[in-house]
Amino acid sequence: MRTYYEWPKELLERRLTDQPAASSDVYTYSGNKADWRGIAQSPAYSDMIGEIRTEGERLLQRPIPVLTRENYDLYETNGNRLIYEGLYFERRSRLTSFALLHCLYPDSPEYRKALIDTIEAILEEMTWCLPAHMKGNSFDRHIDLFASETGFALAEILTITEQSLPSALRDEIRAQIERRILNPYLDDRYPPYHWETADHNWSAVCAGSIGSTAILLGIDRKRRAAILHRAIGTMNHYLSGFGEDGACPEGPGYWNYGFGYFVYFADLLKRATGGHADLLDSKHVRTIARFQQKAYLAGNRPANFSDASPHVSVNIGLSDYLVSRVEGEGFAPLAIRAGFTDDHCSRFAHALRNLLWFKPEASRQSDWPSGSWYLKDAQWLISRISHASGSFGFAAKGGHNDEPHNHIDVGHFILIADDDPAFAADLGSGEYTAQYFGEGRYEYDCTGAQGHSLPIVNGRLQAVGAESKAIVERVEQGELADRLKLELAACYPGSGLAALEREFVWHKTGLPELELTDTFRFSQEGGAITETIVSKCPPFVRSEGQIILKGSRHSVLLSFDPQSLEVSIEERLYSNHSGQEEGYYRIYFISKDEASLEKTLKLNFKFQEQVES
Q1: Which residues, 6 or more positions from 32, have their beta carbon under 8 angstroms from its beta carbon?
Q2: pLDDT tens digits, one per residue of 267-288
Q3: What residues contact residue 573 under an 8 Å CB cut-off, 6+ apart?
Q4: pLDDT tens sequence across 5-16
Q5: Whole-angstrom Cα distance, residue 399 to residue 487?
Q6: Spatial CB neighbours of 455, under 8 Å, sequence gap ≥ 6
Q7: Calpha distance 235→279 (Å, rounded)
Q8: Which residues neighbour 86 within 8 Å (Cβ) at sequence distance 6 or greater?
Q9: pTM of the model
């Protein structure tokens, strides 16, 4: 692990102010107290507030969900997460909705009562952790993502509501946070939590939430310094998970999550130390901050490799804040800001800052500007084109098959335009179940090689593991075209391959065009080859050697050599992250020549303005 920040406890203790978070002024750019009434009356916030009020009114008509032990135990008995988590996160939606509505409309007794009732219910929960994260851990000591987030949310609500909640409830909130979060965290009779040395979102979310909670509650300075020292150490592990290119291999959704909580903690820490401890004052962190602008292909559609969602809205508060702190960061298009209910987990930290850190006066473009980026450590090529004919995006990856939230996808690619279904798709994350994160993970189409646009060689799919990796042979980025060439033979052990070169050439002028060329070299004898393209668009064989992928606005003409390749099309279903069934198409191009030691197969994807019949 590389050490990015090192703050001795004694120095932190000296730098900490006595009252780091006495009121809600810690949340604004200027340090002035948040003007809740002004926000509530401003037309610039009307859409955001309308979404919060709609959700609040919906929740007022519903009882607080009951969390039973029977539902909690479903994960252990059959691997189901959605039933318990659905109830749990509706409680968190109530907490977030009514806390914000109470601040916006402090004269409403209905919102205040709903907030108090919700907090009391959450304080009575047997654990703030999710069953999928317990794995035999003790209710009394374990801290997971959502336990730490709950503590942080309650601490922030104490701060921004000031004295408007009953004093007995305020005391109980502090007592429960101490019992469930701060005391277990500082209990040195036990080994550190597993996430304290993780190099992914868990470390940032858990440590960031706990550190922020300690700042907000203004606990004893010595204990506060001990917590912050430990949290900063964990942040070093989190930052070590990023290469010098700043890419988040888990995708922009997890960047929003992990890096968001890193930033929230960094902001509070800087204020709590009078500006002395600034975790954002680092070239490495600034590079990570710029990942969001590179990750999107069109609108809210990112290069969604691994367990990333095909659609990821922008947390506008986080995004606008980074513009103020990071040179070269631009304002995100307002059209793709996250709606209030977009986050099914209803995270209070995001929702609060989407209001208080939003800059309505900012000058924004309607979509992301054109650009191309090669992220060297992740081995991702990302390119987007925006002009009068529309917005088009292409992304391809190398990497290896043991990445965070791993999919079997070395050499896989994505091809999209505007709001059309993906012409070459990444299915994104499937439904999170016990098996999804267990031995059966790659039986799912979302995660396995069978659900990605990759060759099948002598009946073999790509292998699992870090040794199944790409070698980048060539990268070129130009005004007219981008090029990426990968060597993939290591991904197919036992297939008889001596080499497999996959080359992408992305032509960017006019309506863009993608050339895909695979060259197979066998060591002793030839073999069977099947090229697979995964698409969300219905494919229609138009003529010999041509397939039309039909979108709503655009289409793609997929051309191939019919003398070399035979076509087969299969429609399949999979369960998405929300547990809902979706369909997609596998287009197989089966090589007719199994004898040659070397063979080259080409596919061409040409965008067209109008869908052809």
Answers
A1: 25
A2: 999 999 989 999 999 999 999 9
A3: 581, 582, 583
A4: 777 788 888 888
A5: 11
A6: 411, 500, 502, 518, 520, 529, 530, 531, 532
A7: 9
A8: none
A9: 0.92
